[in-house]
Design a protein that fits this description.
Layout: H1 6-18, H2 20-25, H3 44-52, E1 57-60, H4 64-76, E2 82-85, H5 92-98, H6 100-103, E3 107-110, H7 120-133, H8 141-159, H9 164-173, E4 199-203, E5 209-211
Parallel strand pairs: 1-2, 2-3
Antiparallel strand pairs: 3-4, 4-5
C-alpha cells in the first residue's frame, strides 16, 4: 500500500521489483497493491478491500501521519496481520498518534538510526548534536542531511566549481568511498547513494523503536 507520492509510490514499486524473483517462482504472492489518498482521515474503504485479500504481511510505504491512522483503523476492523512501514512511516510521532497499544509490534525498514551507526564520525557528530539539542535525533535524516552538506562541500572543494552540472557529474562519477557520518559515500550513475544498509526495527512494549532481533 502506498500514498501516490513520488516517494511512497517509488518505494512500493522498488519493493515489488525486488520481490520479482520470488513472485516468479511462486514463493510469495502480492494479494493487494493500491494507494490511499494522503491527508484523509478515514481509510476504512481501502482497508476493507485489503482485508478481503487476507494478507499475511502489510507493507505501507507512505508517511507516518497516515500510517498511524491506517494501523489504528485496520485493527478496529479486524486486520491483524504484521504491519511493516517504510522509512517515512514509523517514528516517535507515529507512536504518539497511534498509541503504544497499537504501535507495539509494528516493524519498519530503515537506514540505521543514529544510535546504531558504527562509524567514529557518527559518534563525534552525535556527541555534538546532543550537546546542542539535548538528545540525539530519533530519525536518521538530520545525520543524512549533515552528510549531504559535507559531500557537497567536498565536491566543491575538489572541483573548484559551484556549477550544478559539474558537481552532479563529479558526484556520480568521481565520489567513491568518501568517509561520512553514515559510512562510506558513493553514488550510482543515476545519483542514488550506494551501499546504504537497511535495518529492520520494531516498536517495543514501551513504545521505543529498537532493532528487531
Amino acid at each position: 500500500m502506498h500514498d501516490n507520492t513520488a516517494f511512497g509510490k517509488g518505494l512500493a514499486e522498488n519493493a515489488r521489483d525486488a520481490l520479482k524473483p520470488m513472485l516468479d517462482s511462486g514463493k510469495v504472492q502480492i494479494v493487494y497493491y493500491d494507494a490511499i489518498t494522503p491527508g484523509e482521515k478515514d481509510f476504512r474503504v481501502p482497508l476493507t478491500k485489503m482485508r478481503e485479500t487476507q494478507p499475511e504481511l502489510w507493507y505501507y510505504t507512505g508517511y507516518y501521519a497516515e500510517a498511524a491512522l491506517l494501523v489504528t483503523q485496520a485493527r478496529e476492523i479486524g486486520i491483524t496481520c504484521t504491519f511493516v512501514g517504510g522509512n517515512a512511516a514509523i517514528n516517535d510521532e507515529f507512536v504518539k498518534i497511534a498509541g503504544v497499544a497499537v504501535a507495539k509490534g509494528c516493524y519498519m525498514t530503515n537506514e540505521p538510526l543514529p544510535a546504531d551507526l558504527p562509524t567514529p564520525e557518527a559518534a563525534e557528530f552525535l556527541k555534538a548534536y546532543k550537546a546542542k539539542f539535548g538528545d540525539i535525533p530519533s530519525s536518521p535524516w538530520p545525520v543524512y542531511a549533515a552528510d549531504a552538506v559535507n559531500i557537497i562541500a567536498y565536491s566543491i572543494d575538489k572541483t573548484g566549481s559551484f556549477d550544478g552540472t559539474v558537481l552532479a557529474d563529479f558526484l556520480r562519477n568521481k565520489v567513491n568511498g568518501v568517509p561520512g557520518i553514515t559510512g562510506k559515500i558513493g553514488f550510482t550513475d543515476k545519483g542514488d547513494r550506494e551501499g546504504v544498509p537497511m535495518f529492520l526495527y520494531v516498536v517495543d512494549d514501551q513504545g521505543n523503536i529498537v532493532l528487531s532481533k
